[in-house]
Amino acid sequence: MNRWEWRTFGAADDVFGDRPPERVQESDELYVLSVARGDTVKVRDGLMDVKRLEQVNDDGLEQWAPVLKAEFPLSAEQVRSILEGLRVPVPQLDRAAYDLDDFVRGRSDLLAVPVHKHRSRYTVGDCMAELTEVTTEHGSTRTVAVESEHADRVIAGVRRLGLADRPNTSYPRGLKALIGFGAGRYAVIDVGTNSVKFHIGERSADAAWDTVVDRAEVTRLGDGLDEGGRLQAGAIERTADAVAGMVAEAKRAGVLAIAAVGTAGLRIAPNAADFIDAVRARCGIEVEVIPGEEEARLAYLAATSALPAARGARAVFDTGGGSSQFTFGRDGQVHEQVSVPVGAVRYTERYGLAEAVGEDVVQDALSAIDRDLTALEGRATPDAVVGLGGALTNMAAVKHELATYDPDVVQGTVLDRTEIDRQLELYRTRGADERRAIVGLQRGRADVILAGTCIVRVVLAKLGTDSVTVSDHGLRHGLLVDRFG
Question: What domains can you pick out in the chain, each with its CATH number?
Answer without folding.
Answer: 3-179 (2.40.320), 184-289 (3.30.420.40), 307-475 (3.30.420.150)
